[in-house]
Amino acid sequence: MGKITVIQTGSTLVSPAVPNRNTRKSPLAYTGLFQRRSNRIEVPVKCFLVEVAGRKTLIDAGWSAQDATRPLRHMGFGLWFASQPVMEVDEAVDRQLAHLGVAVDDLEAVAFTHLDCDHVSGIDGVAKARRLYVSREELEQADTPDPRYRKKFWEGVSFTPLEMQADPKAPFNASCDLYGDGSLVAYLVPGHSAGSVAYIAREGDRFAILAGDTGYNRASWEKLYLPGPVYNKENMEQALLWVHDLLEDERCAGAYAAHDPAVAPGIYEF
Ligand SMILES: [Zn+2]
What we know:
Bound molecules: zinc ion
Number of helices: 8
Structural class: alpha/beta
Order of helices and strands: EEEHHHEHEHEHEEEEEEHHEE
Helix content: 10-25%
């Protein structure tokens, strides 16, 4: 049986245009510029402990404990302004893993969907995992002067790049089988960021989608609502449609997005 433990590392205050860009006219509304901060909404920041084929993999790392104690210093003003963390120290992923009885050494890998601050800043608590996977495409983009990325989070950390292979069944003809047995496969979905991936975890003939920020809630996939932060709009539309179609497959156990308020923290078996 496959198992997904949903871990919530606090939440973030963002513009209402983050989960659904149709709430605001400006395409930059999701940054919160020129908006009253009192209008912000709180969305959860989640990561996922995936157990399939006898391996434990953490998908994303959420906020760091430092985002509870000194958020402005840890994140820098720009990132802090766009997505302010709301959390307690004990909500950091390493603390929650310890509470679940999972040592970082027990993790086969931490696999990131992308390198935005709310997914990677918690890396400081799990950097000792055997491997830290990120797509090569995302690493290359993060290496440019793009202000979206804060390299300080992963200073001294060595990532293992996910090397995409041609895959005609993948939405962008690119996938990477992490363990070579099909139990966890990364699919390139360059909509939210240049190198975003979604993971599919498989156990027997059942599978679950770890979507990252390819969709913020049910409406992203059911109604194909476009989220605010989009690197490539057409790619995002194509990626949302891909998740939408997968959800119609009766073998699909569901889609798990990092900021979906509808999926409560806890254990989901499939
Ligand atoms: Zn995010």
